[in-house]
Amino acid sequence: MGSFSATVKAELCRTEVGKSCCAMAEALGVLLFSNTFSPELIRIVTESTDFSERLPRLFRKAFGLQFDALTETKQGGKSVCQITDLQKIARVFELCGFSARTSVVLHVNFAVLESDCCRKAFLRGAFLAGGSVTDPHKQYQLELSTTHQRVSGETQTLMGEMELLPKETQRKGSHVLYFKQSESIEDFLTSIGAPISAMAVMQAKIEKDWRNEANRKTNCDTANVMKTVDAAQMQLSALRKLETSGVLHSLPEKLRQTALLRFDNPESNLAELAALHDPPASKSAVNHRMRKLIALSEEE
Questions:
Q1: CB 21, CB 119: distance < 8 Å
Q2: I need a labelling partner for 229 at 20 to 30 A (CA). Which of 108, 145, 261, 296 fits?
Q3: pTM of the model
Q4: Within a 10 A sphere around the Cβ of 201, how many other Cβ atoms?
């Protein structure tokens, strides 16, 4: 998985599986945003090799359990980690604060998310299992997807308390929390333990802003050049008319000097034309003379 999501997940997986409380919080995030978390089956599918290698360590620390025999079966480039033993599943449910027999609707167990480090670990697990982020050079979009409506709503509340403010939508039966602003994505990635990836988003934003500014300046410069060319063509047309009618050579000295300089310098702007006068004239004076010459040509 050579995507930006893979890069972020690889960075997150370099974070040590630390204290038991944080391991539990991260595992809860994984389970609530995984493919299947039911009394009959726990199934986590991922394209991230780093995440699939982290999962056994995480579950040993959080639950004292190992995945069953189907752990990390490769299917089309994806790793599948499963627990099918009903006793193991019941223990996972119990440690997460649920009951495999009576829990109908899963939810975020805030009792295991009391400290700031555990909240961040929970969101790290949620992103590893159900998260994605686009290449910031193309667009800004980070998502967390779960099939559990209540989990999505409660995670949004949790993130709001951490001053992370995602929006929510639904897509193909899943509930999706998402960010579309680069600053929000930077804050989220930094919070869950991926500061290098956050810096990559910031760098992409700086480069994009620089290119946009350069393009804007180029477009502005091009527009100014076109205005100068159009104005010069109109002036030359007026001067040719005055020349054809014989009026040009009978003009006052200053007007005639400006007219001849324009003939000799058809691509110069008014400021450049003003500097060519002897003695140099002001831009406004040359502009005034040009207006006068055009007005005279319209009388012919």
A1: no
A2: 296
A3: 0.70
A4: 27
What is the per-residue pLDDT across 58-91, written as a single tens digit (0 to 9) for each? 999 998 888 885 555 555 578 888 888 899 988 9
Are 182 and 223 in a shared domain? no
Residues 18-66 pLDDT 10s: 788 899 999 999 999 998 888 888 899 888 889 988 999 999 999 888 8
Which residue type does 225 have?
V
Half-sphere exposure of 236 (CA within 13 A, CB side): 15
Number of domains in the chain: 2
**Amino acid at residue number 230:** D
Residue 212 lies in a domain: no
Are 19 and 83 members of one domain? yes
The identity of residue 78, as a single letter, is: K
CATH number at residue 118: 3.10.28.10
Q: What is the dihedral of CA 204, 209, 215, 217, to 10 degrees?
A: -150
Q: How far apart are CA 157 and CA 163, in angstroms?
A: 10
Taking the C-alpha atoms of residue 14 and residue 64, their distance in angstroms, rounded to an integer, is 21
